[in-house]
Structure formats: structure tokens, C-alpha cells
């Protein structure tokens, strides 16, 4: 079931992000900076085609994909790796599986009211983020 994720979302909470970044092998200096940031998400959804922009004052990351189609994802803006990524709907949740060097890597997006929830997973670490819709 497809859920409408369109909109601009501002971060309101970010739990266990440092542990998630450690699991990705991000160095301590970058982790310190990244932990201080509150990112925004700008999501444009057209059916099963998505463009998700993660925006901050430090780094931006753009992800453009079609649900159900595997693609090579270049994570040079995140942890400088490449992986094979597939994103599918699981009920009302958008679930990403990233196959590569890090075991159990991926994420899940879902909406509750005017909140966008994001669970990031890598190497046994789980980070939970919540965003509030602004437009």
C-alpha cells in the first residue's frame, strides 16, 4: 500500500545516531559534527518514483529511486561506500535494504499523523529519527 510521503519535514528527534555512525565506520570528527545537526527531508513522490533530499548545513544527500527496482547507490556523501539498494513497500512502510560491506544495513520510513519516522539500521545499531511536516 502506497502512502503519501510528499512534503518538507524538519527533524525533531534523533536517537542513537552516534552508534549508527560508528557501525558505518564514520570517523570521530565527522560523527561529532553530524550529531549536532538537525537535518530536513524534502520528499517528492510520484507514484512509486521518489526523490528524497536530506539537507543540512554540513552535507546534503539526494536519493532518487523507483520502488521495487534494485540500483547501485553511491553513499559518498554518507560513508564513502557503494551498495546495491532495493526499496519496497511493506504495508504502509517504505523499507530499504542496502547490500554491501555493512551487514543488516537499511532504513524504514513511515508516517504517523504529521510525523515522518525513520529507522536507520547498520551492523546491529539502530537509530530512530522523527521529522515534523512543515508543508
UniProtKB/TrEMBL annotation:
Q: Which residue spans adopt a coiled-coil conformation according to this UniProt entry?
A: none
Q: Which GO terms describe its molecular function?
A: retinal binding; retinol binding
Q: Which UniProt keywords apply?
A: Retinol-binding, Transport, Vitamin A
Q: Where is the signal peptide?
A: none
Which InterPro entries has this protein been placed in?
Answer: Calycin, Fatty_acid-bd, ILBP, Lipocln_cytosolic_FA-bd_dom
Q: Domain of life of the organism in this record?
A: Eukaryota
- Functional description taken from the UniProt entry: Cytosolic CRABPs may regulate the access of retinoic acid to the nuclear retinoic acid receptors.
Q: What protein name does the entry list?
A: Cellular retinoic acid-binding protein 1
